[in-house]
Amino acid sequence: MTLAPVLLIEDNLDDVELTRLAFAEAGIEHPLVVASDGALALDWLHARGVHAGRDPEAMPALILLDLNLPKLDGREVVQAIRANPATRHLPVVALSSSGEPMDIDASFASGVDSYLQKPVDFGRFIEEMKRVRAQWLD
Amino acid sequence: MTDSDTLQARIAALESELDALRRTQSVLALALSHDVRAPLRAIESFSYLLEQRGDALDGTARDHLRRIRDASTRLHRLVARLQSWLHVSEAPLVNDTVDLSMLADWCVGELRDADPQRDADIEIAANLHTQGDERLLKRALQELLHNAWIYSAPDGRVRIRVDGEQDDHQLILRVHDHGIGFDPAHAAKLGEPFQRLHPSEPPEGCGLGLAIARRVAERHGGSLRIEGRPGEGAIAHLTLPRATGLTEQTP
Prior knowledge:
The structure holds two protein chains of two kinds.
Chain A: E1 6-9, H1 13-26, E2 32-35, H2 38-45, E3 62-66, H3 74-83, E4 92-96, H4 101-110, E5 114-117, H5 122-137
Parallel strand pairs in A: 1-2, 1-3, 3-4, 4-5
Helix pairs in contact in A: 1-5, 2-3
Chain B: H1 3-33, H2 37-52, H3 59-90, E1 96-99, H4 100-114, E2 120-124, E3 129-132, H5 134-150, E4 158-166, E5 170-177, H6 209-219, E6 223-228, E7 234-241
Parallel strand pairs in B: 2-4
Antiparallel strand pairs in B: 1-3, 4-5, 5-7, 6-7
Helix pairs in contact in B: 1-3, 2-3, 3-6, 4-5, 5-6
């Protein structure tokens, strides 16, 4: 059976690579699809623009959303996902460098299901990804 | 132009300058929580991954890698401390009557939990109250009590006393320790960011603890003064406004 992908919306190439490595360490076998900004992510979800040939019915199992993005801010992206009937049910986990309560509150207010502060320590990042797997993918 | 006009113009210029400084401070706080942490995470994580392949490296390469890892750990700690310093500088103030005796007791509980093997005699006077922001005041006490704890003689018992006195306007809270103390000639440096007096200070220190406590005091219209002598311990004098909601208690 083909597993639905995880859509990672992230513009930092180091963080993309670290997420790939953490997925492998955490035993997450879902393929990772990467969108480098919010507009491209919405194009992918709705099979339009550069992703016009994609099957629009094939939705990701999970969206990992960096909040600090160029063009559309992460909170605007999740609001767009929640506003569209085709995507509003998708689980969205916010990723952010910030642990500030104000940023966390604003993320939940915009509609994310969970908030994960990107740890500086890679071992902890693997543990976080194991929790993501248990909560959203298993 | 009248004197009053000149004064108004001067006030407007100062307000504008203050706004610009506040904006700079906010940008700096945002940069520390986002932009600085991203490359730091990459250095820390990729060097960790390289360390996992340590067998493929020779001794010199492993030593260099260890130094990179240690430096990134120090930098991470420094960024977190700078964030705390900026936070106490810009967080909106809540004005409540605050029980400093209770907060000090709480902070000591945290220190005991973190260092359970250490014998400690702690004496905290009751009814030390002030007016201000409880979260920030707890932060200041955490810093002062943490210093008193870590600078206690390494093999000896920790002995700390918290007391205070007040008049109609202010409370002076004092944290006395019996630690290694310092040369009084350097007292004026203490409370300035990044000032460290002891070359052998614990590695987690980066000279911001007293600066954080002092900033909290200043935001409450108060001050922080430290006195000490080598080998005889130190006393931190934290001056804060007297509680306005209480009239009966005296420390």
